[in-house]
Amino acid sequence: MQRSEQAVNADTRKAPESFDHALADQVARELRKAVQGEVHFDDGTRALYATDGSLYRHVPIGVVFPRTSEDVRRAVAICYRHQVPVLSRGAGTSLAGQTCNVAVILDFSRHLDQLISLDPQTRLARVQPGCVLDHLRSRAEEHHLTFGPDPSTHTHNTLGGMLGNNSCGVHSVMAGRTADNVRSLRVLTYDGAEFRVGPTSEQELDDIIAEGGRRGEIYAGLKRLRDRYAALVREGYPDIPRRVSGYNLDELLEDKGFNVARALVGSEGTCVVILEAELELVPSPQSRCVVMLGYPDVYTSCDHITDILSFGPVGLEGMDHLLIREMRNKHMHPQARSMLPDGNSWLLVEFGGDTEQEATDKAHALMRDLGAADSAPTMALFVGEAEQEEIWNTRDASLGATSRSPALGDTFPGWEDAAVAPENVGAYLRDFRQLMHRFGYEASLYGHFGNGCIHCRINFSLANESEKAKWRAFMEEAAELVVHYGGSLSGEHGDGQVRAELLPRMYGPELMDAMREFKTLWDPQGKMNPGKLVDPYSMTASLRFGPGMAAPRTDTYFAYTDDDNSFFRATNRCVGIGNCRRKSGGVMCPSFRATDEEQHSTRGRSRLLFEMMQGRELAEQWRSQPVREALDLCLACKGCKEDCPVGVDMATLKAEFMAHHYKGRLRPRAAYAMGLIWTWSRIAVHVPRLANFMLHAPLIGPLAKWVGGIAQQREMPHFAPVDFRSWFAAREVRNAGLPSVLLWPDTFNNYFYPRTLQAAVRVLEAAGYQVVLPPRPLCCGRPLYAEGMLDRARRQLADILDSLNRLIDQGVPLVGLEPSCVATFRDELPQLFPGDERARYLQTSTWLLGEFLERSGYQPPRLDRSVMVHTHCHQHASTDRDADAALLRRMQADFQMLDAGCCGMAGSFGYDAEKYEVSMRIAGQQVVPAVRGKGEHTLVMTNGFSCREQVAHTTGEHTYHLAEIIDMALQTGAPTLEVLASTGQQAASERR
User: Within 13 A of 919's CA, how many CA atoms are on the CB side?
Assistant: First the structure.
């Protein structure tokens, strides 16, 4: 039913801008006495939880991390006694503003995160609200089952959050919305009533009402509401797969089984607190394949959706040419883009079956049918797991590709989630794009086309009152348009604050009255996540980026050239999606994985830095203690630079903050002990025996560690009797007249592991190069950055630029063995010297050994050994991490590339006595178990000095650098004659 003729504005109310701090203190005191979990009402925690993935900012009263259901009961009771609002929260990734509010937040993700039971026979699972979706899915897959809805945040989003939003995801084509997969819920009301809800027969309904009490009162009210509004609900609720907006009043209808649990799904915490959920599982196809279809434009592709659905896909996603253009502009997933069939819009169609044959038979049937039609799309079928994973990157890259767009500028959520019937998608998108253009807006269009749900991030501005009014007008017209097509304002992200006041345009005043009655039955006081869904705060209230938001400029060490030369914009890269909260896969974020604390995630640190620069909750700015505490446990691993979809580089932000924070002040002792390692090493090289005695003697060694703030448990590395530069200077010149390569003698390998550099010399010479060294000892200053010693680091880099002038002019490439040093030349150097062409040269002409050998076409000898490879975090973030694998493949080695995250050492981090425990916790999660589980004769390869030290410390295993692995093959393999791709010259590949 169209509502445009009776569109009305919601009765919006002013969002609270503050709270009674004296009352907050009283509530905090009572909570700390009553609950076992942590209670944080400090400014730092409030700043952390002031926003989610949306446009909004509401500073909470405080945050409680309940350990038990009894904690939840007691916390809600205290809030009820003081009439303080309550907000349930999981991973905090919501895009509509429903997980930030001026309330006491109950964060279920830290402790109440268990999968209570899973019964494969009944296909039912019981979970606590903080249970992460992928935890449930991985356990269910053991029985070839899954929980059907799977949002893009499945690695870290909580099931409580999915219940709050009525989430869907890629495979809702197969399984429907979260509401469609819920059997029952155990809920707690604001006034303390607790009971289980689910489908209810008419007899059961009468019995519950007859029992009386708070439960009977609520059910009686729900029955009256159903009977009064049933006809209007049937007429006014869009019959589409992704109707997510509003309360699920249709679930109370008699033909739906008066399902109170499903009616509460999608209520965004505005009615009850969910204590436990019973969820229905569905069979998981064990074999899958993907058909990519190319069309001339996105509208034409959408016109074929219903035809494709008739072939029974388990997923049907779409994306337009602008998304691929944005990926190209950002150099994202070139391999995946090259696999796309010709076209300007694409549909990704996934089929599933018990066997590969069953899945591919469905795919071939679709392809035959489409191929026989006029204007057939271009097609490509992907069957192998690796190629399927690669092609999915084109769709999964949407957030990273469309945020901070080179072509469109900053983009935002707000109208990112509308849904219509699948048969109407093409027509709707034609009109929607015209609407955007009329307002001067643009966006890439992508999403769950098979269910009619369209995602986009639009390049609107909220910088001033005029732009804000323009955006509001656009939102109102966009709502009218989707209603015209019989659609829903939200197709999976919920209404929250951004769309709630538009709901009357979709439902009309009478159904809005019904929704208001529904909330009041559960929450008469209106204290459960107020201002969301019904009686909402204005969509233009409490904006993070609204008029009057300060964008302070400050003098910084780094240039932040990718952020308009603004530290503030760099802190504001984070879009709140929370990938840094995942517990496995990639590197980001090791400190969160060790602590489960938001402040120790990349997102949490970004939030604190944003608040610090705003000077509201965190008024001390560079001297802020909450920010320092959060950044103190940042390992500066750079995992976020690669794994964060928007490329937050927290290592750089930490270095900047620490430089300002400690300006004119003493740092912790460990900062000087390890940060100045190059200085100490240049002294120790003259008396290595004495230095080793001082570090390892029974009495003096522990004292030296205490003075330096080093963990007593750590075995300090031994200075080599002869450093590498001395060894090289005593050696004859080799390969004179062949192309030169500058081998970087980093501090760690030069003074502690010279054998690694010696092996690299032999390998490079075997590859046909003349190895040269810098004219004098130099250090890139890598250990200085995490400590914020940027003045000293800049001096050392300036010294490098001056010392390497001649070699730079000659175009000699630089090869490094230590990934951290290579990362310094690629990342920090150009940001500290943004206008220096020498810095630019080193940025683009510095290579990790594996990269250099791979791009030169070097063919190493065969290696008949098994190798387990752990990738250094900086290698993961700043280099071509596939190069080592390519070389090992050429060597015909039997190798395994670990996906084990950070080892926990991270340069000086793991040596620091105050961080030792966290370092070991990180190591024990994946790296140590993997190394201990390897075969007896398997070699462990890792290129980073810190990784090698951590593996040795935790497992006693000897580790090898890639240079040593190739050198080993050179010693055991037959000499060969190689043709150098870069020069066409020949060189004997024999050990010198």
Answer: 27
